[in-house]
């Protein structure tokens, strides 16, 4: 089969294009999927570059880093085995099943839940992995997945549109769940023009919250289509003044970086900060006095329950979410697609098509 294969940590040159890669066979409790589309996300970039390593303190650049510790270059703080086919956001048709897997899945269009689990201990976060990281994923013509991690989807949306949902929307829903967002909250979303940011806007609105999006002004028209109540510039010089009388109870952040203290300063007493990324930089200035004197709650969000993904699929089938598909690229042009993703050339998600 054709596949884009990651050969090691580093720059985009670490991807190799192969047209004769061995097509996988489904093992016990696995299905074989003919990949229709696969979305890109920050995990692909950060894993390739080794950005998750504690040795790296820079923002996500997409390039190689001078120092990447061998023991912790992945999201889970463990070494990665190469060669590796990345790509978590798989949409496609099940064409075969392994022993024990549900044969009625053959011929069904499915989405893949990226969280790998020990099915004897499925709620144990320490026993999780991620699709396209701890096992091969969807940057290929075919991919295998655990049958318990695929969800049939009944939708008129294209494969490319569906491939925008899995990682971004599950990540966003996990963040909002951890922060217990609901009616009466006002949620501030930095980076609202990105995949997770756009998902946060829509999902927070579904929960009945007031949503204030932050994005570069050139992207305000696109962000407005997602339905936020207000849109602010990406980095106002005086965020408090820009907010006016708004009382922000939740900040849902995947940006971090030098503007981070301003986000914390505008939270109301008893407010919540929830985080699942730090693309502008993982090292921030943290004033503990603001944290405890305002009775703030901070939650990190990574490993999600299976119900989060299943809820996203149900929202899709009911037409309650809109995809933010920015562009599609042929799989062979994955390097160019990922560079465009890094450069934020487009507003929203980028998908590759085998």
UniProtKB/TrEMBL annotation:
InterPro entries hit by this protein: ADH-like_C (IPR013149), ADH-like_N (IPR013154), ER (IPR020843), GroES-like_sf (IPR011032), NAD(P)-bd_dom_sf (IPR036291), Quin_OxRdtase/zeta-crystal_CS (IPR002364)
Keyword NADP: yes
Signal peptide segment: none
Keywords on record: NADP, Oxidoreductase
Pfam families recorded: ADH_N (PF08240), ADH_zinc_N (PF00107)
Domain of life of the native organism: Bacteria
Domain Enoyl reductase (ER): from-to ranges: 10-352
Protein name per its UniProtKB record: Zinc-binding dehydrogenase
């Amino acid at each position: 089969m054709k596949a884009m294969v990651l050969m090691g940590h580093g720059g985009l040159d670490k991807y190799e294009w192969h047209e004769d890669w061995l097509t996988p066979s489904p093992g016990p409790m696995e299905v074989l999927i003919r990949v229709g589309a696969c979305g890109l996300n920050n995990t692909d970039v950060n894993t390739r570059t080794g950005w998750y390593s504690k040795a790296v303190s820079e923002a996500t650049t997409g390039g190689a880093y001078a120092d990447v510790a061998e023991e912790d270059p992945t999201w889970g703080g463990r070494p990665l085995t190469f060669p590796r086919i990345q790509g978590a956001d798989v949409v496609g048709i099940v064409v075969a099943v392994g022993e024990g897997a549900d044969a009625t899945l053959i011929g069904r269009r499915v989405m893949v839940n990226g969280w790998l689990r020990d099915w004897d201990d499925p709620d144990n976060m320490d026993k999780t992995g991620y699709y396209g990281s701890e096992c091969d994923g969807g940057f290929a013509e075919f991919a295998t997945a655990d049958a318990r991690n695929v969800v049939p989807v009944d939708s008129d949306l294209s494969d490319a549109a569906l491939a925008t949902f899995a990682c971004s929307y599950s990540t966003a829903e996990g963040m909002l769940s951890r922060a217990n967002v609901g009616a009466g909250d006002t949620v501030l979303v930095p980076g609202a023009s990105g995949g997770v940011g756009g998902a946060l806007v829509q999902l927070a609105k579904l929960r009945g919250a007031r949503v204030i999006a932050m994005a570069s002004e050139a992207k305000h028209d696109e962000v407005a289509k997602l339905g936020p109540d207000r849109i602010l510039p990406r980095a106002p010089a005086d965020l408090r003044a820009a907010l006016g009388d708004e009382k922000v109870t939740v900040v849902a952040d995947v940006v971090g970086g030098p503007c981070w203290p301003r986000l914390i300063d505008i939270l109301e007493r008893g407010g919540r900060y929830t985080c699942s990324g730090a693309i502008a930089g993982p090292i921030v200035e943290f004033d503990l006095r603001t944290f405890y004197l305002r009775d703030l709650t901070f939650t990190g969000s990574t490993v999600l329950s299976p119900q989060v993904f299943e809820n996203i699929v149900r929202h899709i089938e009911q037409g309650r979410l809109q995809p933010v598909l920015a562009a599609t690229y042929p799989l062979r042009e994955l390097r160019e697609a990922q560079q465009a993703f890094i450069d934020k050339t487009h507003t929203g998600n980028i998908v590759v098509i085998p």
